[in-house]
Amino acid sequence: MSNCQWTIDAHNAVQFSGELTRDTVPPVWQERQQWLNARDHVVLNVTEVTKVDTAGVAMLVNAKKQVGLQQRELSIVGASPQLRAIISVSGVAEVLDVPFAGPTATPTKVKVSHSSIAKKR
């Protein structure tokens, strides 16, 4: 069985490790008062999260919503490519505001000449 652990690190950020999945999110969410409270700006460090699914993303969205209702801020740092991809396809990238690195969405034009294709045949 997989698990997810959380601790408060030396910089007062919440450090998650393990898996944020449908199996692990319920107990972590039940403890949210402990890791969401007592800070005006909550930082969730997910660098050590090894696996995430849509339940993990939903937990992050709900944490952001709960903190926002209290006029506080929440930031997510250390997002893996897997987490970024799930956030993107789930349509919550603007809600979670996780920085995305990489190429722009602008398509690249490639010029192909017919004569170069014909030569390869």
TrEMBL record:
Gene3D superfamilies: STAS domain (3.30.750.24). InterPro entries: MlaB-like_STAS (IPR058548), MlaB_ABC_Transporter (IPR052746), STAS_dom (IPR002645), STAS_dom_sf (IPR036513). Signal peptide: none annotated. Residues 14-96 form the STAS domain. PANTHER family: BLR2341 PROTEIN (PTHR35849), INTERMEMBRANE PHOSPHOLIPID TRANSPORT SYSTEM BINDING PROTEIN MLAB (PTHR35849:SF1). This is Phospholipid transport system transporter-binding protein. It comes from Pseudidiomarina maritima.
